[in-house]
Amino acid sequence: MVAVDLRKVKKLIELVEESAISELEVSSGDESVRIVMHRLPASGFPTAAPSAVTVQAQNDTPPTTDSTAENLLAPMAGTFYRQSHPDAPVFVETGQQVHAGDILCIIESMKMMHEIRAAKDASIEQICVANGEPISTGDVLFKLS
Predict the structure, then answer these.
(1) Domain limits of the chain?
(2) Long-range contacts of range 36-44, CB-CB < 8 Å, 24 or more positions apart?
(3) Residue 126, Cβ neighbours under 10 Å: how many?
(4) Helix, strand, or coil (residue 7)
(5) What is the DSSP letter of 16?
């Protein structure tokens, strides 16, 4: 087993942080170190052009007589955003009526912005994710009725 000099790795990390590069790979003999830095612009929000994704809400709870809520699940892993940039108004609020095609949120995944749109008319019962929070595929984003 090859021992890695942590001081060298720390210095490489510092170099990546101080530079404009986002990825660095260094190999020397049997040693190899790869450092990847995912950066957000100064605004704190990614700036890639958005792509549209329409998500069909899924009702994964047994039907009951007093609840008709459907869970809108994340179609991909990424970062959840309630607005297009920090100064913009949020796309939806709890209690708001939305129509098919309305933007509900944005998921930033692999440096691309994906607009998540309502598949049908509904009401936002609950927003289940905080703005800027990382999400996984299948996480509940909204409860709709």
Answers:
(1) 6-36, 50-144
(2) 43/85, 43/86, 44/86, 44/132
(3) 14
(4) helix
(5) H
HEC-encoded secondary structure of 120-142: CCEEEEEECCCCCCEECCCCEEE
* CATH T-level fold of 50-144: OB fold (Dihydrolipoamide Acetyltransferase, E2P) (2.40.50)
Strands (DSSP E) along 8-133, which ranges?
Answer: 23-28, 31-36, 50-55, 70-73, 78-81, 97-98, 103-109, 112-118, 122-127
Tell me how far CA of residue 64 lies from CA of 28, 69, 94, in angstroms.
Answer: 63, 10, 22
pLDDT in tens, 44-100: 555 444 444 444 444 444 444 445 689 999 998 999 999 998 899 999 999 999 999
CA distance 145 to 122: 6
- Please name every residue paired with 134 in a beta bridge, in sequence order, or none if there are none: 79
Looking at residue 3, its pLDDT comes to 62
Instruction: State the residue for tokens 């090859």.
Output: 2
Instruction: Give the three-class secondary structure for 38.
Output: coil
Q: Give the Cα separation of 3 and 17 in Å (integer).
A: 24
